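About this split. The held-out portion is used to measure sequence recovery: a designer receives only the C-alpha coordinates and must propose an amino acid at every position. Recovery is the fraction of positions where the proposal matches the reference. Here is one held-out target exactly as it appears in the evaluation file.
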Protein backbone atom coordinates (compact mmCIF):
# COMPACT_ATOMS: atom_id res chain seq x y z
CA UNK A 1 0.00 0.00 0.00
CA UNK A 2 1.02 3.64 -0.41
CA UNK A 3 -0.80 5.52 2.37
CA UNK A 4 0.85 8.88 1.68
CA UNK A 5 -0.01 8.69 -2.01
CA UNK A 6 -3.64 7.78 -1.29
CA UNK A 7 -3.95 10.64 1.20
CA UNK A 8 -2.54 13.04 -1.39
CA UNK A 9 -5.01 11.75 -3.99
CA UNK A 10 -7.92 12.16 -1.57
CA UNK A 11 -6.87 15.73 -0.83
CA UNK A 12 -6.60 16.49 -4.54
CA UNK A 13 -10.09 15.09 -5.08
CA UNK A 14 -11.62 17.22 -2.33
CA UNK A 15 -9.94 20.37 -3.67
CA UNK A 16 -10.81 19.71 -7.33
CA UNK A 17 -12.84 22.40 -9.14
CA UNK A 18 -12.43 21.13 -12.70
CA UNK A 19 -16.18 20.91 -13.39
CA UNK A 20 -18.00 24.18 -12.56
CA UNK A 21 -21.46 22.72 -13.21
CA UNK A 22 -20.90 19.90 -10.71
CA UNK A 23 -19.26 22.08 -8.07
CA UNK A 24 -22.16 24.53 -8.31
CA UNK A 25 -24.74 21.74 -8.03
CA UNK A 26 -23.04 20.12 -5.02
CA UNK A 27 -22.93 23.45 -3.19
CA UNK A 28 -26.54 24.25 -4.10
CA UNK A 29 -27.75 20.89 -2.75
CA UNK A 30 -25.68 21.39 0.40
CA UNK A 31 -27.32 24.77 0.92
CA UNK A 32 -30.95 23.88 0.17
CA UNK A 33 -30.72 20.36 1.70
CA UNK A 34 -33.47 17.76 1.85
CA UNK A 35 -36.15 18.01 4.52
CA UNK A 36 -35.17 14.68 6.06
CA UNK A 37 -31.62 15.98 6.53
CA UNK A 38 -32.32 19.66 7.24
CA UNK A 39 -30.27 19.54 10.45
CA UNK A 40 -27.26 17.89 8.81
CA UNK A 41 -24.07 19.68 7.85
CA UNK A 42 -23.69 18.67 4.19
CA UNK A 43 -20.28 17.83 2.74
CA UNK A 44 -21.03 19.58 -0.57
CA UNK A 45 -17.65 18.84 -2.22
CA UNK A 46 -16.01 16.16 -4.37
CA UNK A 47 -15.93 12.84 -2.49
CA UNK A 48 -12.67 10.89 -2.02
CA UNK A 49 -12.28 7.13 -2.11
CA UNK A 50 -12.77 5.03 1.01
CA UNK A 51 -11.58 1.67 2.26
CA UNK A 52 -8.59 -0.56 2.89
CA UNK A 53 -5.33 0.81 1.43
CA UNK A 54 -4.09 -2.79 1.14
CA UNK A 55 -7.16 -3.80 -0.90
CA UNK A 56 -6.94 -6.42 -3.60
CA UNK A 57 -10.48 -5.49 -4.78
CA UNK A 58 -11.59 -2.06 -6.00
CA UNK A 59 -15.33 -1.36 -6.35
CA UNK A 60 -16.14 1.51 -8.72
CA UNK A 61 -19.53 3.21 -8.97
CA UNK A 62 -20.85 6.11 -11.05
CA UNK A 63 -21.00 9.17 -8.77
CA UNK A 64 -22.02 10.33 -5.29
CA UNK A 65 -25.74 10.70 -4.60
CA UNK A 66 -26.93 14.28 -4.05
CA UNK A 67 -28.22 13.52 -0.54
CA UNK A 68 -25.96 10.51 0.04
CA UNK A 69 -22.21 10.89 -0.29
CA UNK A 70 -22.60 14.56 -1.21
CA UNK A 71 -24.14 14.93 2.25
CA UNK A 72 -21.95 12.55 4.25
CA UNK A 73 -18.63 12.90 2.44
CA UNK A 74 -18.05 9.14 2.18
CA UNK A 75 -18.55 6.88 -0.82
CA UNK A 76 -21.81 4.88 -0.81
CA UNK A 77 -22.96 6.34 2.49
CA UNK A 78 -26.28 7.70 3.72
CA UNK A 79 -28.41 7.74 0.57
CA UNK A 80 -31.63 6.68 2.32
CA UNK A 81 -33.39 6.30 5.65
CA UNK A 82 -35.33 3.15 4.77
CA UNK A 83 -32.42 0.74 4.29
CA UNK A 84 -33.24 0.45 0.58
CA UNK A 85 -30.64 2.84 -0.86
CA UNK A 86 -27.50 1.81 -2.73
CA UNK A 87 -25.34 2.36 0.35
CA UNK A 88 -27.13 -0.08 2.66
CA UNK A 89 -27.70 -2.59 -0.16
CA UNK A 90 -23.97 -2.61 -0.84
CA UNK A 91 -23.02 -2.66 2.85
CA UNK A 92 -25.32 -5.61 3.61
CA UNK A 93 -23.80 -7.76 0.89
CA UNK A 94 -20.22 -6.72 1.66
CA UNK A 95 -20.84 -7.52 5.34
CA UNK A 96 -22.14 -10.97 4.43
CA UNK A 97 -18.86 -11.70 2.63
CA UNK A 98 -16.63 -10.37 5.40
CA UNK A 99 -15.65 -7.20 3.56
CA UNK A 100 -17.66 -4.61 5.54
CA UNK A 101 -17.50 -4.52 9.33
CA UNK A 102 -21.23 -3.77 9.58
CA UNK A 103 -24.33 -4.08 7.36
CA UNK A 104 -25.12 -0.34 7.23
CA UNK A 105 -23.37 2.73 5.85
CA UNK A 106 -24.95 5.79 7.44
CA UNK A 107 -22.35 8.50 7.96
CA UNK A 108 -18.66 9.18 8.47
CA UNK A 109 -17.63 8.04 11.93
CA UNK A 110 -20.30 5.32 12.17
CA UNK A 111 -17.63 2.65 12.68
CA UNK A 112 -17.75 1.15 9.20
CA UNK A 113 -14.45 -0.26 7.96
CA UNK A 114 -13.66 -2.33 4.88
CA UNK A 115 -11.36 -5.33 4.69
CA UNK A 116 -9.43 -5.95 1.46
CA UNK A 117 -11.67 -3.62 -0.57
CA UNK A 118 -11.71 0.03 -1.60
CA UNK A 119 -14.69 2.08 -2.84
CA UNK A 120 -14.46 4.71 -5.54
CA UNK A 121 -16.39 6.18 -8.48
CA UNK A 122 -15.71 7.51 -11.95
CA UNK A 123 -17.15 10.93 -11.03
CA UNK A 124 -16.53 12.46 -7.59
CA UNK A 125 -19.26 15.12 -7.51
CA UNK A 126 -23.00 14.51 -7.44
CA UNK A 127 -24.30 15.29 -10.96
CA UNK A 128 -27.75 16.78 -11.66
CA UNK A 129 -30.25 13.99 -12.43
CA UNK A 130 -27.36 11.57 -11.73
CA UNK A 131 -26.07 12.17 -15.27
CA UNK A 132 -22.50 13.45 -15.67
CA UNK A 133 -21.42 14.68 -19.09
CA UNK A 134 -18.65 13.05 -21.10
CA UNK A 135 -16.35 15.97 -20.34
CA UNK A 136 -17.03 15.64 -16.62
CA UNK A 137 -16.24 11.94 -16.70
CA UNK A 138 -13.03 12.70 -18.62
CA UNK A 139 -12.04 15.41 -16.13
CA UNK A 140 -12.38 12.96 -13.24
CA UNK A 141 -10.51 10.08 -14.88
CA UNK A 142 -7.17 11.20 -13.46
CA UNK A 143 -8.32 10.63 -9.88
CA UNK A 144 -9.33 7.02 -10.48
CA UNK A 145 -6.17 6.34 -12.48
CA UNK A 146 -4.03 7.60 -9.60
CA UNK A 147 -5.99 5.53 -7.07
CA UNK A 148 -5.51 2.38 -9.11
CA UNK A 149 -1.77 3.00 -9.27
CA UNK A 150 -1.60 3.67 -5.50
CA UNK A 151 -3.47 0.47 -4.57
CA UNK A 152 -0.42 -1.73 -4.93
CA UNK A 153 -2.19 -5.01 -3.99
CA UNK A 154 -5.04 -4.53 -6.47
CA UNK A 155 -5.96 -7.63 -8.48
CA UNK A 156 -9.61 -7.13 -9.45
CA UNK A 157 -11.97 -4.24 -10.15
CA UNK A 158 -15.74 -4.58 -9.81
CA UNK A 159 -17.56 -1.92 -11.83
CA UNK A 160 -21.13 -1.01 -10.92
CA UNK A 161 -23.05 -0.16 -14.06
CA UNK A 162 -22.23 0.30 -17.75
CA UNK A 163 -20.70 3.78 -17.48
CA UNK A 164 -18.22 2.64 -14.82
CA UNK A 165 -17.39 -0.50 -16.81
CA UNK A 166 -16.77 1.43 -20.03
CA UNK A 167 -14.71 4.12 -18.31
CA UNK A 168 -12.43 1.67 -16.49
CA UNK A 169 -11.96 -0.35 -19.68
CA UNK A 170 -11.10 2.84 -21.57
CA UNK A 171 -8.64 3.90 -18.88
CA UNK A 172 -6.77 0.60 -19.04
CA UNK A 173 -6.73 0.72 -22.82
CA UNK A 174 -4.99 4.08 -22.61
CA UNK A 175 -2.39 2.48 -20.33
CA UNK A 176 -1.64 -0.28 -22.82
CA UNK A 177 -3.82 -3.11 -21.54
CA UNK A 178 -4.58 -5.93 -23.95
CA UNK A 179 -8.26 -5.16 -24.65
CA UNK A 180 -9.87 -8.30 -26.12
CA UNK A 181 -11.41 -8.19 -29.60
CA UNK A 182 -14.28 -7.84 -30.15
CA UNK A 183 -14.32 -5.17 -27.46
CA UNK A 184 -16.02 -6.50 -24.29
CA UNK A 185 -19.57 -5.34 -23.67
CA UNK A 186 -21.02 -4.63 -20.27
CA UNK A 187 -23.12 -7.35 -18.67
CA UNK A 188 -23.84 -8.46 -15.15
CA UNK A 189 -21.15 -10.95 -14.19
CA UNK A 190 -18.93 -10.33 -17.22
CA UNK A 191 -15.21 -10.94 -16.60
CA UNK A 192 -12.49 -9.30 -18.69
CA UNK A 193 -8.84 -10.33 -18.44
CA UNK A 194 -6.52 -7.52 -19.52
CA UNK A 195 -3.11 -9.14 -19.18
CA UNK A 196 -0.74 -9.98 -16.34
CA UNK A 197 0.06 -6.35 -15.55
CA UNK A 198 -3.56 -5.27 -15.01
CA UNK A 199 -6.37 -6.17 -12.61
CA UNK A 200 -9.22 -8.40 -13.80
CA UNK A 201 -12.33 -6.39 -14.67
CA UNK A 202 -15.77 -7.58 -13.50
CA UNK A 203 -19.12 -6.01 -14.36
CA UNK A 204 -22.25 -5.76 -12.22
CA UNK A 205 -25.56 -3.98 -12.39
CA UNK A 206 -25.47 -0.90 -10.20
CA UNK A 207 -27.29 -1.34 -6.85
CA UNK A 208 -29.54 1.65 -7.53
CA UNK A 209 -33.14 1.68 -6.38
CA UNK A 210 -34.16 1.49 -10.03
CA UNK A 211 -32.45 -1.90 -10.26
CA UNK A 212 -33.00 -3.31 -6.77
CA UNK A 213 -36.67 -2.37 -6.35
CA UNK A 214 -37.61 -3.71 -9.78
CA UNK A 215 -35.85 -7.03 -9.17
CA UNK A 216 -33.31 -6.50 -11.92
CA UNK A 217 -30.64 -6.85 -9.24
CA UNK A 218 -31.33 -8.94 -6.16
CA UNK A 219 -29.08 -9.34 -3.13
CA UNK A 220 -28.50 -12.94 -4.20
CA UNK A 221 -27.36 -11.85 -7.67
CA UNK A 222 -25.13 -9.16 -6.23
CA UNK A 223 -23.70 -11.61 -3.72
CA UNK A 224 -22.73 -13.95 -6.53
CA UNK A 225 -20.80 -11.24 -8.37
CA UNK A 226 -19.14 -10.05 -5.14
CA UNK A 227 -18.02 -13.63 -4.46
CA UNK A 228 -16.70 -13.89 -8.03
CA UNK A 229 -14.77 -10.61 -7.70
CA UNK A 230 -13.36 -11.73 -4.32
CA UNK A 231 -12.17 -15.01 -5.83
CA UNK A 232 -10.47 -13.23 -8.73
CA UNK A 233 -8.91 -10.67 -6.35
CA UNK A 234 -7.35 -13.56 -4.42
CA UNK A 235 -5.92 -14.96 -7.63
CA UNK A 236 -8.04 -18.10 -7.56
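Reference sequence for scoring:
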Amino acid sequence: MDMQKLEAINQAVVECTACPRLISYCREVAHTKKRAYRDDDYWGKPVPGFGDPAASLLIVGLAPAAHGANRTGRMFTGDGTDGMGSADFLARVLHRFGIASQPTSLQRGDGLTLHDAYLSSIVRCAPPANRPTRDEIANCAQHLQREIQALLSLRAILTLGKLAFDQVLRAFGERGAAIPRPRPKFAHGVVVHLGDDFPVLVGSYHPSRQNTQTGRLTESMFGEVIELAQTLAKGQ
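Annotator remark: The longest strand covers residues 57-61.
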